[in-house]
Write a structure and sequence with these properties.
Helices cover 79% and strands 0% of the residues. With 260 residues, it is mostly helical. α2 runs parallel beside α4.
């Protein structure tokens, strides 16, 4: 048990450092599931649980103001609890989302209360000319998130799935319902914010073309990306031909009006 707790600590430490390590995606459930499976001596089940959890979180992206459930903590603990109790993939999936949602609440507390206060303190340090201290404050924010989530993950595994489930059940239904509604609404708001920043008459036709491909033709992301690449190639050829024609006309004009 002690070895498993230490293993979960190091897996969580590395996984929660994925953004600090350059957005390495090492914290994705399909990766952490493999390491948790190795820790419990069941690589196959760990990979299956990680892959199933990955399918859930593939559609949950941080867009605009939308922050999805924490796939790192949810993936690690969901797989660890399932393997520890000899449960299957379906049980791991059942545990993943509630745990990820609970971890999201902790992240939101950091993003809404703690990090803004530290950012304002960094602004004051910069105003006082303490540039190095202001820069280090941003590093401390990263370290605080990594350490806090790592410790919480390790403690949650140590106390067991029953205690975690009881803590989740203590959350009022109004709060969980509100989080569910917000999770469904915020992605639309995030997309709206991105469209508001990037929308123009030049890109509008391609936006609606992608919407038609996804909503009406039911094409997947890869197919839509291929169509976009083909459109880009066709436009490149057309613009290249126009540029070549203009260059030829300019060259002929210079020859006609050249006095020498």
């Amino acid at each position: 048990m002690i070895g498993q707790i230490i293993g979960i600590f190091f897996i969580s430490l590395v996984a929660n450092s994925q953004d600090f390590l350059g957005t390495s995606f090492i914290g994705r459930p399909i990766v952490t599931g493999m390491f948790v499976g190795l820790l419990f001596g069941n690589l196959r089940e760990g990979l299956l649980m990680g892959a199933a959890s990955e399918l859930i979180f593939m559609g949950l992206m941080a867009i605009g103001a939308s922050v999805p459930p924490d796939e790192i903590v949810g993936g690690i603990l969901g797989t660890a609890f399932a393997l520890k109790n000899g449960l299957g993939v379906s049980s791991a999936i059942t545990l993943v989302l509630p745990i990820a949602t609970l971890s999201l609440i902790v992240r939101n507390i950091l993003y809404v209360l703690v990090f803004p206060a530290m950012t304002h303190h960094a602004d004051h340090l910069a105003d006082e000319g303490k540039i190095t201290a202001a820069g280090n404050m941003h590093l401390w924010m990263s370290f605080l998130q990594i350490i806090l989530l790592t410790v919480l993950t390790t403690l949650a595994f140590a106390v067991g799935s029953n205690a975690v489930g009881a803590l989740i059940r203590l959350i009022p239904k109004a709060v969980t319902d509100g989080l569910t509604i917000a999770t469904n609404i915020l992605p639309a708001i995030g997309f709206g914010m991105l469209i508001n920043m990037t929308y123009s008459k030049k890109v509008a036709p391609f936006f609606f073309l992608g919407f038609i491909c996804a909503a009406y033709l039911k094409l997947n992301t890869i197919c839509a990306a291929i169509i976009g690449a083909i459109c880009a190639a066709v436009m490149y050829i057309i613009f290249d031909e126009i540029k070549s024609s203009n260059d030829k006309l300019a060259t002929k004009g210079d020859e006609i009006y050249d006095d020498f």
